[in-house]
Amino acid sequence: MKLFVPGDAAAVAVGADEIAEALSAAGFAVVRNGSRGMFWLEPLVEAVIPAGRIGYGPVTLEDVPGLIAALHGDGAHALRLGDPEQIPFLKNQTRLTFARCGIVDPRSLDDYVAHGGYAGLRKAVALGAAGTVEEVLQSGLRGRGGAGFPTGIKWKTVAATAAAQKYIVCNADEGDSGTFSDRMIMEGDPFVLVEGMTIAGYATGATKGYIYTRSEYPHAIAMFNAAIRTARAAGYLGGNVAGAGFAFDIELRAGAGAYVCGEETALLESIEGKRGQVRPKPPLPAHQGLFGLPTVINNVISLATVPTVLANGAGAYKNFGMGRSRGTMPIQLAGNVRHGGLYETAFGVTLGELVQTIGGGTLTGRPVRAVQVGGPLGAYFPPALFDTPFDYEAFAAKDGLIGHGGVVVFDDTVDMAEQARFAMQFCAIESCGKCTPCRIGAVRGAETIGKIMQGREVAKNRALLIDLCQTMKLGSLCALGGFTPYPVMSAITHFAEDFARSPLPVAAE
Q: Is pLDDT above 60 for 303?
């Protein structure tokens, strides 16, 4: 009998390796797949039977003897979940980018092709380079890394820029709190990212691609490097990709985990072997990017979605979503939430539905007080804003941002002044130091919030903090300093009571 036991880092963290070894020693054929994204059920063991797959989870090492007996018998077990596809959390998703994740063997190119892999590249070659750029443009695909910039416009700009050498750079420096979609793709379906980068290279005339990730992702690094080697050996990378007459190859670079290297120009500096500092713009990377040459910089999810867009057509992808936010978004539920994991759905689902219905509310069972969307620089939304649709423009209208799709839940025990101070402290630590508003402003901001929390001249310091946030928002060189005011100002706006500290008592003479 074939069993699937995830090799995803989230499953490994709760004992998947030991369980896989035990099941393999018992004579089962074990495949290390990616995670389905239902983290509260990990490790999720799936058995292949004539009718399909049957899931068991969360499995511990102590459960293995009983599970082995069940698998040799009628399959009955207390941890039996039935068909994983019928679990509501998974059944109700619209999986386009993550269609294969958790289903295929991520090491097998044959498995990838058997599940529709490289159909997008074939379609791209049939359309031609210009036609491929137009297809991506018409799909409405926007950058899934946070900025939401139209992917097709970036590609069109690089394609139209004359140069002897062009580059595709994949930003896999996933540093936002509560985010893990990039890692899941690299660990669970790496060939889709190889294919997406290859399509981007073909469309824009780039012959070399770099993927930049962080050293804290050893499983993703190993899996993606293995995929590069396999694709190259099979002719899907190299001097004549898939016999289509164009050249493209990929190299992975690992950084040291500096948050600022998630900013595209600091990332380029790091790839070039320099200190990760933000470059002023212009020039834009599309004109002068990596090594001073035209460069497409896209996030993992953006590039991993491209094969689906090409294979099914721009119209099919554009049918999902709302307004200018087209297609699907892999939303990552984390923090104090009962059902944490990855949920891919079309834009338009409300924040309340994500947190209360899909996420199941808080793990502690206490009321939800705040939800931070968009990483450590995202705004805090109270339940009063839970009717906000998950959409770039809808969040922006309420002074929030979607970012990389991370949703972190807090219950009613959270101190929002402390969360605001954390945002400033985080910025101070992670600042590259290039611009004054970020480098100095974050330090002064943390100090000022500290004074408010101590009850020292609360009204005066609150006004000073608001003024400082405005300076950082308008004067910072990049989004690190420019977005730090979002969590601070949202905390002040929606949770004002946490900043109304009692004045310090006057010392007796």
A: yes
